[in-house]
Amino acid sequence: MELPYRSYAEDCKKAFGSRLQKLSVHAGFTCPNRDGRCGVGGCTYCDNAAFNPSYCRRVGDIRTQLEEGKRFHAWRYRKASKYVAYFQTYSNTYAPLDVLKARYGEALSVEGIEGLIVSTRPDCLPDETLAYLADLSRQCYVRVEIGIESCYDDTLRRINRGHDMACTRDAYRRAAAHGLACGGHLMFGLPGESRADMVAQAALLSELPALDSLKLHQLQIIKHTAMAAEYEAHPERFSFFTVEEYVELVVDFLERLSPHIRIERLAGEVPPRFLGGPAFGLRSERVAERIVARMRERGTYQGRLYPPA
Ligand code: SF4
Questions:
Q1: What is the CA radius of gyration of the chain?
Q2: What are 265's strand-pairing partners?
Q3: Is 216 helix (H, G, I), strand (E, B) or coil?
Q4: Residue 250 burial by CB count (10 A; 0-12/13-18/19+): exposed, middle or buried?
Q5: Which CATH number fits domain 8-298: 1.10.10.10, 3.30.200.20, 3.20.20.70, 3.40.630.30?
Q6: Nearest CA to ligand 1 atom 7
Q7: What are the boundaries of each domain within the chain?
Q8: Nearest C-alpha to atom 5 of ligand 1 is from which residue?
Q9: How many CB atoms lie within 10 A of CB 198?
């Protein structure tokens, strides 16, 4: 049955003729919000270890990580997949262009790697990097994923993102000028935002040129982060969705989102050993199924209320 939203995975299957398997790579980059260039301590929720699969703990040695990743996934799925290198940890465009070229080139030289996904911050995308990535995208599959997290400057300050929404808009505008389509990450449930604020972001994101896919996450507190300490000291500053509340919120959001933006993820999932706060207790696929079921029950679909009246 057709999904009531535009699915990134389905689009990839059509484009590639098979499943697109990402192989995560820790390529030795750091982050300007950690090394002092724009901030120290990082975003308050950040602990990259919580998001990395076991085969990419090591810094550097991109080829070995990708070979291990291929072995891991070949065993797990036993189905034909196409592989892309997923530069996921920290800010993967935060280096001089010759360093980027060498690290991306190493990944692309590994047999079976068909392209790159590069995760980064909006303030780490100078024009020369965008021009290079746009050029590379004419030779192989290239996606840039930008951490948006929130469209509100008050929230971005509160979680110590080290950039504002104007910076995010500028990154997408310049990516579009270079002919690059980009993904984005958004987090629901950040402290200080009302439900109406969260839903209203659908219209703000729909205006971003170059944004053509989104990953949606609910806030999850990761142990030993600044946010975990804040939660322990001031639990009253946080409120967490029940699964039912989250499902309803995402449905309301999707109704107001441009139908051109593909949805890559509907909920996040942190391994339980990293969790320092409440969680749904459900795998993210189950949450996604509930969202789809609720959209069907409500007879609605992505973009039903887009553009806003
Ligand atoms: S920008 Fe990314 S890597 Fe850097 S502190 Fe924030 S979440 Fe962590």
A1: 19
A2: 215
A3: strand
A4: buried
A5: 3.20.20.70
A6: 46
A7: 8-298
A8: 42
A9: 23
Q: Could you report the per-residue pLDDT of 154-168, keeping only the tens digit for each?
A: 999 999 999 999 999
Mutate to test the pocket of ligand 1, among 24, 29, 33, 167 (most ligand atoms within 8 A of CB): 33
pLDDT tens-digit series, residues 179-230: 999 999 999 999 999 999 999 999 999 999 999 999 999 999 999 999 999 9
The owner of tokens 């724009």 is 38
CB within 8 Å of 76: residues ≥ 6 apart: none
Ligand 1 centroid distance, CA of 115 (Å): 23
**Residue 295 pLDDT > 70, yes or no?**
yes
Measure 168 CA to ligand 1 centroid, in angstroms: 14
pLDDT at 58 (0 to 100)? 56
Angle of helix 127-136 relative to helix 97-108, nearest 10 degrees, comes to 20
Q: Which residues line ligand 1 (CB under 6 A)?
A: 31, 33-34, 42-43, 46, 48, 90-91, 121, 147
Taking the whole predicted model, whether its pTM rises above 0.70 is answered as: yes
